Amino acid sequence: MPNSEDNTLLPILPLEAEIPKGVDRRSFLMRGAVISAAMVLTGCERTPQQEAAAPPAAQPPKPKPSAMSADLNVVAQSKGPVMTVIDEFYKVGPGPSSSHTIGPMRITYDFYQRCTKLPADQLAKATGLKVHLYGSLSATGKGHGTERAALAGLLGKEPATINPLFLDELAANPTQPHPLKLGDKTFNLSLADVIYDAPKGDFPHPNTMTCKLLAGDQAVYELEYYSVGGGFIEWKGYQPPKKGQPKYPYSTMKELRKHAEDNKLSIPQVIMANEVAVSGKTEAEINAFIDKVSGAMVAIVKSGLAAPEAVLPGPIKLHTKASTVYKRAMDDKFQSDRAIALVAACALAGSEENARGHLVVTAPTGGSAGVMPAIVYALGEGGRKLPQEKIRQGFLAGAAIGYLCKHNATLAGAEGGCQAEIGVASAMSAAFIAAAFDSSPQVLENAAESALEHHLGLTCDPVAGFVQVPCIERCAFGAVKGWTAYMIASNEVETRHRVDLDTTIESMAETGRDMGAKYKETSEGGLAANLTLC
Ligand code: SF4
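# iron/sulfur cluster complex -> structure
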C-alpha cells in the first residue's frame, strides 16, 4: 500500500458539534443543558434517592449456558487468567477449517503417536483403526475435507509440515489403501476408515470424535476427542500442560489495559512479558516463532495472488478471483480505492488458499485465515513496508484479542457462528494495525471493539458445507472492516468511545448461545439453505 496521502474521496466532517443554522447560540446551549438534566433525571446517572425508590428493573432472563460439558478445559479455563501462549494460538496446518481439518488432523496425529507407544501385546491383537465423527464434524465434515485430514493424521502425517498434495491425492483416490506401520504390524487404511457418525446428539462438544484401535469390532484402545475451535484440541480427561504464572495476570481487556497503563507499557510489551513468564521461552525464541508465522502468512498471500484463476473443488463451482481483483485494482486511478482493493485481494488470496486445502495459519481459525495475512502483507512488504519489529508487535496485540475472545466467548463457528471466526479475526487485525502504528492501549482496545461489534450476530452458513461461500469474500470484508475500525479509532476522541471490548465479547458469547443450531456450521440455514446450486 503506498505511503502518500490521497484525500480526494474523503468527505470533510466537522470535528465538534456545530450550532445548526436558524438556532441562536443561547437556545442551543439551553437545549443541551435541558437534555443533560433529563439524562441525569432519567438516564444512566440516576440519583441515589431514585435508585432507592425505583423498583428493581425486570432483568431479562439470562440465556442458558452453552450445551458444552463442564469437564472441558475451554469451559474451566474461563475462570482464571488467560494462559494461552502464542505458539498454541497461531497454528500452521491444512485448510479449509481449523476446527474441521486442523483440529481433527491434530487429533488423529495425537492418536497415532499414542498408538506407537502402546505395549507390543496390545498392538499384536489389533486388526484395524477407525475414526468416528459426530455433531458438526459429521454434518459438514464432507465439505471441509475432514475425512482426508483425519486419515492423514492417522497415517502419521504432521499438520504443520504435510505436503498439501498428499491430501489432494487422498481425496482423488478415495478407495486406495495406505499402509500404516505400528510395531510389527502393518494396517492398510483408507478414507472408509473415517466414519461420518451421528450429526445430532448429546455430545460434550459440537465437534466430538472418537479414535479406535480395533481387534475385529472390539476396541483394544480408544479415546474421545474434541476439536474445540481454532485448531485447539482436548480429549476425555484432558489436563492442560503445566505452565508458569503470567507476570501480568488478566482475564478481561479492562485488566489488560490497566496493566499497560499502570506500568507505562504498550499492550504488546505486557503480552511479551506474559509469554516469557508462562511459556518459559526467551523473547528471542518468541520473536523467532512470530517471524516464522509472519513469513508463512506472506507466503500464503503471494501464493494465492499468483495462483491462476480456477474453479475450486466442490458443488458450488466457485471461480477464484484474488489475482484478477489484485491486477485490476492496481490500475485504479484513485489511490484510496487501490488501497482498499489491495487489502481485499490479499484476504481473498489467503482464503482461496484455505479453500484449496493448502497450508494456512489459524488467526484465529481456518475459515478466517485470509483476514490477518492481508494485514501483515499490506503493512509489510506489500505496502507500508513497516519494520519487522512493528509486525511482531502487531502479532502480539492480535493474539491478546484472540486470547480474550477464546477465554470469554469462543473461536468456533460451530459454537458462536461466524462472529466468532471472521469477527474475531477482524478485531485481532484492528488491534494488529493499532499496535504496529504505536497506538495507545485505549485506541487499540477501541479499534478491536469496533471491529468485533460490527460482526455481532453474523451466522455461519457455509454453502454445501464448503468453506467457500460466504467464507472467502467474508475474509475480505473482515480485513477491510478491521482497517476501517482502526481508522475510526485512531481518528476519534479515544476517551469518548462508548462501548468497551469486554462488553462486546460478552455480547458475542450470549449471541452465540442464543443463535439457532442451523446457523452454527451445520449448513442447515441461511445461504446454505437458500442458494440453489446447479
Ligand atoms: S461462514 Fe464463517 S464461521 Fe462459517 S465456515 Fe465460513 S468463515 Fe467459518
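# post-check
Residues 367-368, 413, 418, 421-422, 460, 462, 467, 470-471, 474, 521 surround iron/sulfur cluster (CB under 6 Å).
Residues 69 and 204 are 5 Å apart (CA to CA).
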